[in-house]
Amino acid sequence: MIKNCLILFMLLLAIAHAVPYAQDILEEEWMAFKLEYNKVYQDETEEQLRFKIFNYNKLLIARHNLKWAAGKVSFNLAVNKFADLLDHEFQDLMLGKMSPSGSNFGSSTFLPPVNLTLPDAVDWRKYGFVTPVKDQGSCGSCWAFSTTGSLEGQHFRKTGQLISLSEQNLIDCSPGNNGCKNGAVEYAFRYIQSNKGIDTEISYPYEAAQNQCRFRRDTIGATSTGFVKLNPGDEMELAQAVATVGPISVLINSSLDSFKFYHDGVYNDPSCNPNKLTHAVLVVGYGTDDRGGDFWLVKNSWSTHWGEQGYVKIKRNANNLCGIASNALYPLV
């Protein structure tokens, strides 16, 4: 009896000591997070709020990763620079209602090669079509990054030169778009066509804010003669275009927590509504994963600290998951 009471006392003592240690661990993780992402808050009140949000998101991530460890899901999550934001703050800061422009005016029809046999996998990064992952920062300019990404690929295909193009040129100068609020890739392609070019990244660097148009004709990096729009929702046609043309601009639904904190694996969240398009990205290939099955290889513009060094694998042949084939297009050069 005495022995049992002694064991119980020791357990209670260990628990009492573990509680402050657990708090210490949380605070150390918080400090590391702030240092890694250069987070600074206006006062102690805001810091406490951000700390609570951070811990809530950590719990959400941990619960998902238990399913990953048990083999119940095909992707895992991780803390990233969005972990101190409320959901509506993330939506306002990074996303928009990325609907198509509503018109196919100026677009051409995609015609796949006759008797095309699709390769099992495609990755245009291996062939020099894709610039390094960029960072849109605190600006809803994903549409501009998707536009430059697809044009960079097509310009390389034609000339053999991979030139990083200016998103800032599009943000400042592209009619019909709303800078850091939202935009349509179609409008951006039309601007490049009518403007007879877009400046290079070096000559017109990114500022993550809309300013006056400072386009210079003597620093053009690429031109375009129009664009091709694929059949909405047709994943087979998207695969044909990716395999034969190169990187393709697409819109997706990226509003879920599971996407916000995606780390690696094949993203396959059944609740990712294909009719809610919030984010423009770039499909640079496709393939098949042993654990997650068929996927699209997608370049994002949230820096290399997000996802798989800035990339995400989105489930392919899954009823147009996240709307990845709903608005797909590429420029003509």
Automatic annotation (TrEMBL):
Gene3D superfamilies xrefs: Cysteine proteinases (3.90.70.10)
Coiled-coil regions listed: none
Signal peptide segment: 1-18
Enzyme Commission number(s) of this protein: 3.4.22.15
Residue ranges of every copy of the Cathepsin propeptide inhibitor domain listed in the record: 30-90
GO BP terms, alphabetized: proteolysis
SMART domains listed in its UniProt record: Inhibitor_I29, Pept_C1
Record-annotated Peptidase C1A papain C-terminal domain positions: 118-332
Keywords: Disulfide bond, Hydrolase, Protease, Signal, Thiol protease, Zymogen
Catalytic activity, reaction form: Specificity close to that of papain. As compared to cathepsin B, cathepsin L exhibits higher activity toward protein substrates, but has little activity on Z-Arg-Arg-NHMec, and no peptidyl-dipeptidase activity
First-level EC class: hydrolase
An example Gene Ontology molecular-function term: cysteine-type endopeptidase activity
A Pfam family annotated for this UniProt entry: Peptidase_C1
Oligomer and partners: Dimer of a heavy and a light chain linked by disulfide bonds.
Family: Belongs to the peptidase C1 family.
Protein name: cathepsin L
Organism whose genome encodes this protein: Drosophila ananassae (Fruit fly)
